[in-house]
Amino acid sequence: MMMILRKPVLMIKKPIFSRIIGLTLLYAVVFILIVMLHFTREGRVSRQTGPMTVTGYYREGNSSPDPVDGYAIEGTITISFGGMEFRLDRADRMIIGADGVSFRLPVGTLQFVVLSPASGPELRISADLTNARLELPYRPLESSQIRSEGNANITVTAEGVNYSFEWSSLDSGRGVLILDSGNPVAIYRALPEEETFNPASYALATAWDQGRYDDALNRWRNESWNRWSRMAGSSTDETLITAYAVESVLRGTYRAAVAGVSPSFLNGSGRTYLSSVFLGQTDQGRSSLLAAEQVAYDRISRLTEEKSPDLFRESHIIEYLGIRGYSSFLDNTALTAQSLEENPGMELVPGLLEAWAEWQNFRPSADNPFDGFIEGILLAVSESLYRDTERDAVLVLSGEESDTEFNIRLGLALNRYGSLSGRDDWAALGRSLVLSALAYADPDGMVPAQLSLTGAGILEEPVGGRRISAAGLYRYLVPGSWPRFTGIGEPGDGIWVWTAALGVETSLENNVLDIAVTFPAGETHYMIFRGVNAFSKIQLYNMDYRTDPQFERYDSSGWSYSSRDQVLLVKMRHRAEVEHISIFF
Fold first, then answer.
1. N or C: which end of the chain has fewer CB within 10 A?
2. pLDDT at 153
3. CA 199 to CA 431: how far, in whole Å?
């Protein structure tokens, strides 16, 4: 039997005294930590007054403050309100009240008071300092967003509400609020919610849809027509006679209307191209048209060359240039638009809206240079609106004045913009401006050119102010039938016509320009063409017609041509509703 011998293991015991000392020290450390944790937790104070929270520490070993002197403060105090935290690094005492908290400082007193006005909660910070300056550090809380508005102010967004300082001395670069004897009070408040502008809230009941608007305009046209019927036989007002003739075409009474025009007007020397499309004397009309065109050309060429914003004060400037084929002017118009501010003045708004709508007709493949102005335009309109509750009217004001023709032009432009963009609310607002301008008409159909806002909040006509007749407004309100300039051929060809025809369509094939003209059968009208190059012949009713300088004297169609001015005058007696003029080049 084998025996296994084990090596003896030496057992050494630690001295009992050392073990006692180690355990005693361990218990002491644990006891001190427990005491420290206990008194630290007990010494922390956190109080909430409405939306304000105050957090800090006090020196006493219990949580019962002095009823008069409040807490004796130890360390930093933080005051939180509206997504912002203010830090007070030193204070002797803190007294908490029902609506705020105040602090005794070595240099005076500081108070935070919560107020709740109707506009939203606000924090009023006030200091009573003795020849001292206090810089109170601030910082936004992690859940807040801060936006600087220069060194003078900031805006803080917290839980969807915007806050900002008011009447405050602020150094936003260093993040301190400054209080001293010169600026003892600062206010940090919630900003009122900005209501989103709703154009439909300004729309009149009669302007809610195009049908009701058209009905209202038709009633106005009926009243005007009845008035013109009584006046046309003795009037020498070319605008009235022209409006009367246009409405007569639409009503099927054109022949009787033309026959009833006053002879003194027909034979007068004051007639222009305006009425020549109905009543002839096209040679006289040509002279006045060429003179007016030269004045307009000189003015617009200067404005486009200077890239002047006043270019957009011109009515329908893009259409004007596009019809005449002024391509270089169109290019300069786009450059002028690029030089404008994003929020142009209200005086340019109608022209810019017109330009936006018309650009695609003449430059369909190019980016619209007026797209960037739309939101600024709509903002400008919203800030200029005024509702006259006595008249149930809404108009845009410039200061305390309202311009009638401006409102009608703007209303028509807004209606077209809203229709093209699908923003029906803006279209309804535009129609409301038009109907509101007409609401100030007197029994004779005259409307004030200007209206002034009285102290009672009513728009009234100034004493001795200019007035506009219904005929003077008719050209705005029935633009498709009013005599107008129409492009012939493709945009940029440079051939255009002054006409009262209800429709003009053209085609060019094998050097033959065919112009299909619509007008009531059996009736006669006149056209003034411009930009027509030399040609070999003209056909009317598919028959060759020779020129005759006296063509207006005959009760039939005819024409004459000036190669110097590239002006073609045509008299067209319609055998059918649609007749053709063929020009062979």
1. N
2. 73
3. 11
